[in-house]
Amino acid sequence: MGHRDSSDKSRAYHNRVAPVYDNIYDDPFWDFHDQLTWEHLKTFVPASPDGAILDLGCGTGKWGFKLLKAGFPTSFVDHSPKMLEMVERKLQTWSETTDLRSKADRATLQVDDAKTLQSLPPNHFSLAIALGDVVSICGDAAACLSALHRVVKPDGVVVFTVDNLLAALDHFVSAGKLDHLDDFVRSGKTHWLTADRREQFDVRMFTPQQIEHLAAKSGFALISMIGKTILPVRQNRKFFQTSGAIKQMLAMESLLARDPVATGRAAHLQLAVRKRA
Hints:
The chain has helices at residues 3-17, 21-24, 28-41, 62-69, 81-95, 98-104, 134-137, 141-151, 165-175, 178-187, 208-217, 245-256, and strands spanning 53-56, 74-78, 107-111, 125-130, 152-163, 189-191, 202-204, 220-228, 268-275. The protein is an alpha/beta fold. It has a single domain, classed as Vaccinia Virus protein VP39 (Rossmann fold). Helix 5 (81-95) packs across helix 6 and helix 9 runs antiparallel to helix 10.
């Protein structure tokens, strides 16, 4: 499968789910997941309110809106026009609200390919985020990181997530096909697990060491890496019925994250990297 074919399949999937995308993740586990994401991300928010921010693979704008509300000029970029339509609708609501109107004016929307970012200027963004595993699903992780390197300022930071290869081993083992397991371990390549074959786009998974090396090869220095989530709490929803559970679990995640080996348990890896000056 070529990169273009995979990109077309990814676009088709994300265009289809855009109207219900927020509902898919309206769940206590994902609330916990989001808090873990933000606890790591907020450390790298620019000191200056004029620091430009890129939200790549913005989807319906969850993270971009959080940063826009904080006053930062934010560029929402996605390869799915339907996702950006959802962002536009939310911005329209902001424009009708007095205290948010001026902040809405600081937003820009752009359809673009994560592998090229050809519409964006070089050395422009103080912070770029690519959450939702954009680097894993874009079809060419190296090209995506190179494009991000071009558009962030020297010493600028990129915070991004990828799918963790180690966490997917059980899936391939349970399928019982040794050759498929062997191919996956060697390549890290699989596809999006959706029923419609026309939407089964490429996914590239990484071990923590592999993605750190690829980021370094693209001109970035690793600042930090966390796993999301190290605690396998998605398997037991009873945890979320306990008062104060999320706060308690966040504290445990922070404790476990001090051991880099623990990151390998997580389904997703979240990295903060800095563009070398």
